Amino acid sequence: MNATPDLTLWGAGTSRTIRAHWAMHELGLSYKVKPIGPRTGETKTAEYTRLNPRQKIPLLQDGDFCIGESAAIVAYLSRMYSTPERSLIPESTHDYAAWLEWCFFVVAELDSTSLYVMRRHRADALGHIYGVAPEVVAQAAEYFRGQLRHVEVALADGRPFLMGERFSSADILLTTCLDWAIAYGVGICENALPYLERIQRRAAYQRAVAANAPAAPVAVGPAKL
Ligand SMILES: N[C@@H](CCC(=O)N[C@@H](CS)C(=O)NCC(=O)O)C(=O)O
């Protein structure tokens, strides 16, 4: 492995970008940040579009290698930069499969099918683009709560983290969705409350929150004198 990786993370200020910042901090990695924000025009520049034709954040550059999709970035960092002292990914085949199941579940069911649907259709979010749809928002919140039963049942045995005794990147993904749900006023399940408090006390989480703070708004016209 390269002793001093050349890492640049594009993106700040969203529930997806914090995942990558957080994995970096858990793994003790140094990295450069290009804190571009969504819907600022910064994802649509020629330079960024060359790197990511999807025009989305986050995006990670590791030397010449480039990877998008927040969960894929987190999985890549976990695989590439975990050490015996700081590991975000389980090793045994079955634990790895269970970790994958959690990651896909969080991204597909909690993020894409529930919270992002709410974001697209809330009047105070992206409803002006995708259509304001209160019934869709309410149903997506209900669906989220239903899917969270999987978390409630898993945490009922008192395990500190999704994978048991060891924190993993599946916890990064889940926590960002729990934070997002709370911000949207969607109640989270009972067992997730002490879980979330425990995770929010992690130094790496707190550093990631600071690192993910959105940059000052970009000027969109000539500077006013
Ligand atoms: N599935 C993607 C979603 C990425 C995504 O939608 N990012 C939003 C911000 S959270 C974005 O970049 N929007 C850019 C824009 O519309 O300008 C991931 O998890 O990385």
TrEMBL record:
Residues 4-85 form the GST N-terminal domain. It holds the Pfam family GST_C_2. It comes from the Bacteria. Residues 92-225 form the GST C-terminal domain. This is Glutathione S-transferase family protein.
